[in-house]
Design brief:
Layout lengths: L29 H12 L1 H4 L2 H10 L6 H27 L4 H26 L14
Helix pairs in contact: 1-4, 1-5, 3-4, 4-5
Length: about 140
């Protein structure tokens, strides 16, 4: 014999899962990826000019988030290198600045090439010792 407390009504079925929303890709296409790669490489010859222009042109475009991130990264690194050049210029008074200037120039070339290769392969690169002044 069963009592009314033994007869538990079945639980309602679980609600349906939320609709699937695709995650946007990291970058929108090869054009953005190529421009990001050139932005990193341009630091060798043009210092902060090209990363600044790319960032200023695209900073208000929501669909260019990848390009904005990469141009800010390149710009922050080139600002760091530019500050390093100013410090080296000041240190030329005690003769060590000339050596450090050459060393900084070589590091700039090496890191710009590494960043361009990483961006072309994996899509993004973060410089190991750049000041994050633009965020």
């Amino acid at each position: 014999m069963s009592t009314p407390s033994d007869q538990i009504p079945p639980s309602p079925p679980p609600p349906p899962p939320p609709p699937y929303e695709p995650v946007p890709p990291v970058y929108q296409g090869n054009d953005d990826k190529n421009l990001a790669m050139l932005t990193h490489l341009s630091g060798i010859l043009f210092s902060i000019i090209v990363p600044l222009i790319v960032w200023l042109i695209n900073k208000d475009k929501a669909d260019k988030a990848y390009l904005i991130t990469e141009s800010k990264e390149a710009l922050n690194f080139q600002i760091t290198v530019l500050l390093g050049y100013v410090i080296c210029w000041i240190l030329t008074i005690i003769l060590i600045g000339a050596f450090l200037h050459i060393l900084l120039w070589i590091l700039n070339i090496a890191f710009c090439i590494i960043a361009a290769v990483k961006v072309s392969q994996t899509g993004s690169y973060r410089y190991p010792f750049a000041l994050r002044l633009i965020s």
